[in-house]
Amino acid sequence: MSLLASAAASAPIQWTQLGLQPGIDLGFFTLRFYSLAYLGGILFAYWHLSKMIKAPGAPMAQRHVDDLFFYCTLGIILGGRLGYATFYDPSLWTSVKLFQLWTGGMSFHGGLMGVLLAIAYVCWRGQLNFLRVSDYIAVNVPVGMMLGRLANFINGELWGRPADVPWAMVFPGAGPLARHPSQLYEAALEGAILIVILMVMFWQSRARYRPGLLVGVFTTGIALGRFIVEFYREPDSQLAEFARETGLSMGQWLTVPLILLGVVITVRALMKPPLASGTGTPAAA
Asked: Where are its TM segments located (predicted)?
């Protein structure tokens, strides 16, 4: 924090001087914070979702939470990796590196599709309402997003564009220019802010009785946050020319439909009458 406070009157912050390490050195193995971020986000989601279903109006039982924990974990890993190969680095499809999760990256959009497929399967098998289950899942996702972006910052990767702001940082491997710490911007917009909004909506309001409202707010919020951050984030090297030619990055083009979808889902949820407390039928007007 002292480095941040004195940045305006001194040279740019050097990321290497922050004393960050990519993981915990166990001697025979380094436990990377990026892996811990995924694990922490998934475990939090399981614990909190188990708590959420104890509140009135839950659309599922604990056995369904257990199934979602397993299949959504697969969806995050497989969807995230295959999505990255498809949207950001197609060369991975012809390389063994496709299976090396520590090489390259993970796609938010691919992970989202993987999770949606996992939810759809569990709902189909358990005869659950897909939209209501998605509402409960959506509340928990921003925690994992925040932890993942903080891990990106700790790793000194996915840095931002060159910047002339007091908190700009020089990242290793990014040249001598000071850059936006865009990982922290994402941690705030896609994580911390949405965590507060969705938690308050679920625990302090009757939002869970309006099917689609929570997932609509989540989709709009996280997509809008990603769209904004892309203005400050350095595009993947293999897609820099694409961003220059189209005016928007690949992440932004993939995010525009999500923003529109989120707005539509939110408006529809607000237009329909809420469910009666603890039932699956509309409340009386």
From this structure: 29-47, 68-87, 99-124, 136-154, 184-203, 212-232, 252-271
* Cα–Cα dist 256/246, whole Å: 14
- Positive or negative, the CA dihedral 34, 106, 101, 176 is negative
Task: Give CA–CA dist 76/110, Å, rounded.
Answer: 8
Give the per-residue pLDDT at 194. 97
Q: Longest Cα pair distance anywhere in the chain, in angstroms?
A: 64
Q: Are strands 23-25 and 30-32 parallel, antiparallel or unpaired?
A: antiparallel
Annotated binding-site residues read 149
Task: Residue 207: name the closest of 217, 220, 219 by CA.
Answer: 217
Of 66, 80, 161, 156, the C-alpha closest to 115 is 80
Q: What is the pTM of this model?
A: 0.83
Dihedrals phi, psi of 81, to nearest 5 degrees: -75, -45
CA atoms within 13 A on the CB side of 65: 20
Q: In the numeric block, which tokens belong to residue 92?
A: 């991975």
Q: What residue ranges of the chain have pLDDT lower than 70?
A: 1-10, 87, 89, 91, 93-105, 236-243, 277-285
DSSP states along 107-134: -HHHHHHHHHHHHHHHHHHHT--HHHHH
Q: What is the DSSP letter of 278?
A: T
Beta bridge partners of 31: 24
Structural domain spans, the chain? 30-167+177-236+244-271
Answer left, alpha or beta for residue 185, where phi above 0 means left and psi between -120 and 50 means alpha: alpha
